[in-house]
Amino acid sequence: MNREVLSKYDCMTVGEMPFIRDNTEILKAVGAQEEELNMIFIFELVDIDNVPGSYRMTLHEWHPKEIKECVNRWQRLMIDNDGWNSIFIENHDNARSVSRYTDGSDAFRDLGAKLLSMMQTTLGGTLYVYQGEELGMRNVPTSWEPSEYKDIETINYWKKMNAMYPGDEKQLAHARKVMNEKARDNARTPVQWSAGTNAGFCKDGTTPWMRVNDDYKEVNAEVQRAEAASEQNMSVFQFWQRGLKSRKEHADVFVYGDFKLLDENNDKIFAYVRESEKGEKFITVLNFSKNEVQWTLPKDVKVDSWVACNYVGTGKPETATEGTIVVRAWEGLLGKCA
Fold first, then answer.
1. Architecture of domain 6-251 in CATH?
2. What does the alpha-carbon distance between residue 133 and residue 156 come to, in Å, rounded to a whole number?
């Protein structure tokens, strides 16, 4: 279809191929010489908490190290084979990323959402941002009853678990945990535009298809867009703006540049260097844990200055530029290299 139909138009193609995992087959689809598709959605990262070999509504305990292994594999595969990546961690079929990959509690939601923004805006490929992700929208509260879930997959899962384990409190509690962490409903609550009725999604007197997330009065577009960015803080929305502006200004590095993973065996820190053909270079350091981590900068990476951090707003972080640095819980740092 691409050659016979789409090649006649100035358009972009992206394929949804969730069950194709063989590198050779994927490169047949997205390799520049193949002229098939511009890119496909790589689902490995959004499948990270599925029980291997099982279906989506399962829970598998994963380790932060798996995130960087996955990202490194796909960044290098496309760079080394003239392919192209899709960058995404949210869509209408998966739970909210801030709840899934970080700590979505009130204390850390902002930091986690900004950490994920920094990661995605500094990776090579085409970036897809799902509705509400730019606000740090999170999964529905654990207190919601199963009747609040509207997606047919979730409804059938709950019926199945009740049929298999009638009255079994332990099994049904686990089923509710799976629903809260994996249900597609998490990504399908009305977008939180304001603190008004129905989160501003529809007018008073209109009932949306499902309940608005309980946190809409604090987490919404109106508040985050109006909030004044300062040296100390900026909203999740403003942090995304910062990241996208930087990505556009330094596209040769962040969109098209080389990718080098650092400290691949570290259990908590995901760090990498992006470099353009002209030698412009940045380092990204991400702490995927709730613990403070002491991390030593590689001697061959010379940080000139830290230009962004999710703990500050428009100001510059005071982190050291050489030797061992302290990376706080869920902290993300972006540095300009000499």
1. Alpha-Beta Barrel (3.20)
2. 27
